[in-house]
Write a structure and sequence with these properties.
four-stranded mixed β-sheet, 10% strand, two-stranded antiparallel ribbon
Length: 278
């Protein structure tokens, strides 16, 4: 479990320890498995992510309480997506320790999808001066985050990279007003307080991930104006968006089909019911 910006030097050290047969890299990474394979070797590399929220304060680690009925989750997979006995064995070890484990057949796509959401959101916090609560009260900042996430997903689709898990595809196709309402509700989850409690400690890793995502956008040859604006907020000298700012205009162009479809269905049902009564 090492930040993306510190990962490669650690793998170079582990490369010198051949008696360790497998290394599970757990954390954010959007550059694909190739640099990690080059550093460590394909036969030794596993990739994954640990789904928990925690922070450090007063020399103690505080972890969000998910309740007794909800196990802490993690996702793991082979870098090339091929099934392997060691993955199942490792999953069994973590499950025996009380974790819920998902074995992904495309862990690279899963990690890129996660970065496509968490990096714009974190940069949104930087864009308002580093306060998570200020972002929630700043419509322009939240709208930039929505657009940044949708731009990142558009890059993935252009490159032929699936959006995983499939539940994440929801925000990719939502009209802006609906996506904005969804993100506002999502941002009020109590466990996110742990994630953004110390945003300054995240800056190095988020900068590394932003560079990886920028390279993907260049490969896809797609403009990403909202992501570019969000990534600029990583520079400490950038001017923050004023709290409560609402200068950006919502795009309503894709909302009409979402409204028209249920209305049309209701109309058809209503006509059928009238005919039955006659």
């Amino acid at each position: 479990a090492v930040g993306a910006h510190k990962l490669l030097p650690v793998l170079e050290d582990l490369r010198k320890l051949p008696l360790i047969p497998s290394v599970l890299v757990v954390g954010n990474y959007a550059a694909g498995p190739t640099p990690l394979i080059q550093a460590l070797g394909k036969d030794r590399l596993l990739m994954g992510f640990f789904l928990a929220s925690a922070t450090i304060a007063d020399g103690k680690v505080f972890v969000a309480d998910y309740g007794p009925e909800r196990k802490l989750r993690m996702v793991i997979g082979e870098p090339d997506g091929e099934a392997a006995g060691r993955t199942e064995k490792l999953a069994g070890m973590f499950e025996a320790a009380g974790f819920s484990v998902e074995v992904s057949d495309d862990i690279d796509a899963w990690l890129k999808t996660h970065a496509a959401m968490i990096v714009p959101l974190t940069c949104g916090v930087y864009s308002v001066g580093g306060d998570y609560h200020v972002l929630a009260d700043t419509p322009d900042g939240m709208l930039l985050v929505v657009r940044g996430i949708q731009e990142a997903f558009a890059v993935q689709r252009r490159l032929g990279i699936p959006i995983l898990p499939k539940s994440s595809q929801v925000i990719a196709g939502l009209p802006e007003p609906v996506a904005l309402a969804f993100l506002r509700r999502f941002s009020r989850q109590p466990d996110l307080e742990y994630v953004f409690a110390h945003t300054e400690h995240l800056r190095g890793e988020i900068t590394c991930l932003a560079e990886q995502m920028t390279l993907m956008a260049q490969q896809a040859d797609l403009p990403t104006p909202s992501l570019d604006r969000l990534f600029a907020a990583l520079h400490p000298a950038s001017q923050p968006i004023p709290q409560g700012s609402r200068d950006l205009r919502l795009s309503w162009k894709w909302l009409l089909p979402w409204v028209a479809l249920p209305v049309a269905v209701a109309a058809v049902i209503g006509i059928k019911n009238l005919r039955k009564r006659k």
